[in-house]
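hiii, so i know i said id send this last week but things got crazy w the move. better late than never?? heres the sequnce for the chain we talked about at the cafe, plus the structure i predicted for it. fair warning i was half asleep when i ran it
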Amino acid sequence: MLTPLNIPVSSQTQDRPAPAPSAPLQPPTRWATLTAAPHRITFLPGALLALLSILWWLVELLAEQRADSLSPAALPAPYLHAWLMLYALFPPFIFGFLFTAAPNWLNGPKIGRPAYIATGLLLGLGALTTLFAPLPGMLLHALGWFWGLAALVRSVTAAAPQDKRHPALTLAALVLGGLGNLLLPLWLLTGIDGLPSWAEALGLWGCLTPIFLTVCHRMVPWFTSRVVPNYVVVRPYPVLYALTAASLTHDVLQATGLPD
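okay and structure toks below
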C-alpha cells in the first residue's frame, strides 16, 4: 500500500491498534506532600506544639488556682514550662530552616529525606510524650535533636572548602542546646542540684540567642540586598563574635547564680 507521499506502509503497521491512552497521574498523598521538603515535617510539629503548649500552660495555671497541677509528679510545672519554651517550641523551626538554608549557604549536599523525616517525628513525638512521661519523652526528643544535628554536620563538612563561619556557629549553638536538652532528664535521674538552671541557661543563652544572632547576621543583609538598589552587603564579624561571647557569658553567670 502507498501513502499519499508514496511511502510504502506494511499491512502489519496499518493494522496495528492505536496505543492505549496513558493513565491519569495520581495526585501525591498527604504524607508525600508533607515530607516533600525538610521544613514541612518540622514546621508542622512546631506549630502544633506552640498551640499545645499555650493550651497546656493555660489549663495548668487554672489548675494551680485549685492547688492542683497537670504536670507529672516527677517534674515541677515551672521546669516543664521552661523546657517546652526553650527546647520543644523553637527547635523544630530552627532545624527545618537550617535543613534548607545551610546546604544553600554552602552549595553543599541536601539533607536526606530519611534524616529530616526522622528528626521531625522524633522532636514532635518526644515533646508530646514529655507532657505525660517526662524522662522517656525528653530522651526521645534528644535523640531527634542529635539526629538532625548529625545530618547538618554531614552536609556542612561535605561542602567544598569556603567561608563556613555562619553554619559553624549555628552547629556549635545546636551542640550546646543538645547538651542542655540532656540536663533535665539527667536531673530526673540523679537529682543533682543546679542542673535545671544550667538547662535553662544553655537553652536560652547558649543555643537560641546565638542562633538568632547568627541567622540575622547572615540573612538580614541578604534580604536587604534584594529590595534596596545598589546595596553593598556588609557583615561585620567582630560584632557577631562580641554579641555571641556576651550571650555565652550571660549563660554562665545565670547558671552559676552570679550577678548578670
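btw The mean pLDDT is 87. thought thatd interest u
miss u guys!!
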